């Protein structure tokens, strides 16, 4: 498939919408290197169901065994922040979460824990998102995050506005963790993806909003224990009225998935993809540039070895 055909199908797989083909914003408009050999830095998959896209993506990254070792305690951290059903795209797709858990166990994980510091009532979020049932069916432990006693203070010496944070013990006690956000609009940060999904591992989210949200999002991503993988769910995108959403009219079925160890790169690619549905200049998602400035990752996708897959 050549670049033009791939771009044509990229955001319209399964969706009836007019895609904007802005050369400045198309996720794959840049001259990305096709991964013919060597380490793949980022994989973009389009056109399949969440679990199918993840299987293809993780295979291109070398398989789950490249990231999860036998006997490890693993945390899978989705967005479960809202009391919304999967069709409304407020939370990470439960099918994707279940597949990641299954692959962690297949790679030899001793245990897998799933949690999020929710915005709505945590029990309703866990249940109505479909994530609690999917995670348990896949063999994971589901842990609450609604009490301050679950959190311990860590230092963020590289942070500019945020120098410390209380982080959930599940992250701190794990051997590795996997960050699994959903791509959607956000009223404060403009977009919420992998970097902002870190707000679900901390206790005092009010600090972010009171002390330069876009900088604090970058600051929390400097924590020492970084996710071994960032898997962006772009199966459904909430294009407006995020992060909660109001109705199905806020949602577009786009059937995409992005995966990388570079959190800034994967969010940059996802943000460019979002721009095919709705204009969102990258400079308005300032935590991307802030993260790059802190050397958390790169926005320069031309430097990366990127694999594109259309299912």
TrEMBL record:
Pfam families: DUF362, TAT_signal. InterPro entries: DUF362 (IPR007160), TAT_signal_bac_arc (IPR019546). Residues 74-272 form the DUF362 domain. It comes from the Bacteria. This is Tat pathway signal sequence domain protein. It comes from Bacteroides fluxus YIT 12057.
């Amino acid at each position: 498939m050549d670049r033009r055909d791939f771009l044509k199908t990229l955001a319209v797989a399964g969706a009836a919408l007019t895609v904007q083909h802005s050369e400045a914003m198309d996720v794959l408009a840049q001259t990305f290197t096709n991964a013919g050999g060597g380490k793949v830095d980022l994989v973009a998959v389009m056109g399949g169901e969440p679990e199918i896209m993840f299987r293809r993506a993780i295979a291109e990254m070398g398989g789950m065994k490249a990231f999860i070792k036998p006997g490890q305690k693993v945390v899978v951290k989705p967005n479960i922040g809202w009391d919304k059903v999967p069709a409304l795209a407020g939370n990470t797709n439960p099918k994707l979460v279940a597949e990641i858990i299954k692959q962690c166990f297949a790679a030899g994980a001793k245990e897998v824990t799933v949690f999020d510091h929710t915005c709505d009532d945590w029990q309703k979020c866990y249940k109505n998102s479909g994530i609690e049932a999917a995670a348990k069916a896949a063999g994971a432990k589901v842990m609450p995050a609604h009490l301050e006693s679950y959190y311990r203070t860590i230092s963020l010496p590289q942070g500019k506005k945020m120098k410390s944070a209380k982080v959930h013990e599940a992250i701190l006690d794990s051997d590795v963790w996997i960050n699994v956000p959903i791509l959607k609009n956000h009223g404060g940060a403009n977009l919420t993806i992998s970097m902002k999904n870190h707000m679900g591992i901390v206790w005092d989210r009010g600090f972010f909003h009171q002390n330069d949200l876009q900088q604090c999002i970058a600051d929390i991503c400097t924590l020492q224990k970084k996710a071994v993988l960032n898997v962006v769910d772009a199966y459904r995108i909430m294009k407006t009225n995020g992060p909660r959403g109001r109705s199905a009219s806020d949602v577009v079925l786009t059937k995409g998935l992005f995966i990388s160890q570079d959190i800034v790169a994967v969010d940059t690619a996802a943000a460019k993809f979002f721009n095919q549905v709705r204009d969102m200049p990258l400079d308005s998602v300032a935590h991307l540039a802030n993260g790059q400035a802190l050397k958390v990752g790169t926005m320069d996708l031309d430097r990366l070895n990127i694999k594109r897959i259309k299912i």
